[in-house]
User: Fold this.
Amino acid sequence: QSALTQPASVSGSPGQSITISCTGTSMDVGGYDSVSWYQHHPGKAPKLMIYDVTKRPSGVSNRFSGSKSANTASLTISGLQAEDEADYYCNSIASGSTYVFGTGTKVTVV
Amino acid sequence: QVQLVQSGAEVKMPAASMTVSCKASGYTFTSYYIHWVRQAPGQGLEWMGIITPGGSTTKYTQKFQGRVTMTRDTSTSTVYMELSSLTSEDTAVYYCAREPPRRKYFDYWGQGTLVTVSS
Assistant:
């Protein structure tokens, strides 16, 4: 099972919107509505930001939103803030009841 | 409140085995799945496998088949992950994470355990 493909880095200015893509195959992202996204600050535990492609857990800012088209899922952060600077990972269930993470994207607020 | 508390950092010799524990509290232990995820230095998150504490069913990613064993002790609400035949490539932070049954996402994570494999 290969990792899902994400851009290595994305940057934006405070207040801007950015989008992180997560590309897989029909055997993972495209085959299930089970994509989730995690925010990971170095040295801390990852935090769930989006699940079931578009849903936000309680307590997560509505500046974070998710979507999916075919084999590519996306995470959009609107109104970018300094605290959003972190690594972001997508995850999907895959065939054989396994799970696969994306390669990770470093978000920088410039 | 839900907590997953992992065991402390370890240093292991090559070819040795390691065991990391993950003690759950604040919820019904047998009602949720536990996954193990690792992050090697400078690398991304990597899914290792899952155990269902209720029925003790396990599923491991092919990369670790034959080297990883996940077990649970319901009397102490603790899940264990053992990895054998360690090499320097197993140096990583290991996380346990909880999945609400059949929901396909990880809602709570342990604090991480750094395992260093070095001679």
